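Input:
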Amino acid sequence: MQAALELTGVAKGFTMHLQGGVRLSVVSNVTFSVRAGECVVLGGPSGAGKSSILKMVFGSYRCDHGQILVRRRAESIDIATARARQILALRKDTVGYVSQFLRAVPRVPTIDVVAEPLAGSGTSRDAARRKATELLRRLNLPGPLWGLPPATFSGGEQQRVNIARGFLPNFPILLLDEPTASLDAANCEVVMELIAERKRCGAAIVAIVHDHNVRDRIADTVIDMTRFAEIA
Amino acid sequence: MKDNEDEPLLVAEGLTKRYGRQTGCQDVSFELYEGEVIAVVGESGSGKSTLLQMLCAQMEATSGRVLYRKRDGVMCDLAAMDEAERRFLARTDWGYVHQDPTIGLRMAISAGGNVGERLMAVGQRHYGRIRGTATSWLNRVEIDPVRIDDSPRTYSGGMRQRLQIARNLVTEPRLVLLDEPTGGLDVSVQARLLDLLRGLVADLKLSAVVVTHDLAVARLLSHRIMVMRGGKVIESGLTDQVLDDPREPYTQLLVASILPL
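Output:
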């Protein structure tokens, strides 16, 4: 079966021009693939380049070398060379991303922050809001908060808004950067259930989780990122 | 126009503007698609406003050209159109939001008149309908319709800017050019305006070019960014790519100079 996501020989580094042009290598020769319904967890210490991999797949970091093939219906798109418009199109219906921190827009109420990606992929605004409500309820976010912008929420509350936003649309590829980091046990459990459901629906998931229990529950494959760290 | 969706709405090819020996803008090329928002960022004097004015033929390019796809699907070179056609497009298809609302608005006529005037320019004559549309647009930009007969002179800076936006969008243009739309406004007023613009751009599926020196504005509003310096585009790409993974020394400096909150 063809992989939903396939990285081949991916390398990433940064040139810090403000620090005298220092060149930092983050990862090199990263090669792995994710099938539909599979959850791959990226392991390794902080700084091993795990988040950089997710950002490259999402297209918010550039990929210096290699290929990142994403399957969208019958076609395969290489994120590393795709045009901006293609990447934006993928984000609308194929690749979802739950970042570590919520970047909230001022003044936009939580319910709309969550509903936005679903509404953007063709569902009516009302239906998207209804579904957003269900998911927020499931994640135990108190009802009175739904109408408020999340900027002033606690870390765990913002995290759940972020999770709801990422899980609401049924994207075939889901990138999760420490989705349970600031959650209590009950909410952590909900997120693990959501991940399991999404896998059953055939989503290919790449996740970063440090908690061993969570990792053991969700991972089908664990990839040790230190394998790909460039030897300085 | 479904079959034209894959064609850009606007194409800039090698746009260059020289003022005597000074270069305002050098060899700028890009494509803008329907529903897409491009932010042009860079410091004062980098050529951002010059570029914006060339895009809607307010200023003639020294070399290069601008192609625009009209509603009938035909791509036209702006320079090859006659003045009447360009003015018709400026009234119907394009909006231009100035940093200073006193330039974009007619300060001597009422707020309702400012919005209604663009409707009359496209041939509407029914007073009641024009007033009705103006009222609903004031609502949409969060101006209390009881202020419809007041002069924009009596409006605050943020209200004037919202009125200017209503005046521009009332004819449902396809392309909106915004020159520092939040410049000079208080931050709370800025946030409200940005949120409003974001919603309108998405609802109306507008294409827009936003000139700003504020990277936060670019992050919020745009899909793509072009970074300009000394009249040239030195870096461009997806907005989060340019801001999260800037490549050029100057872009890295811009991003590193954002004050943390």
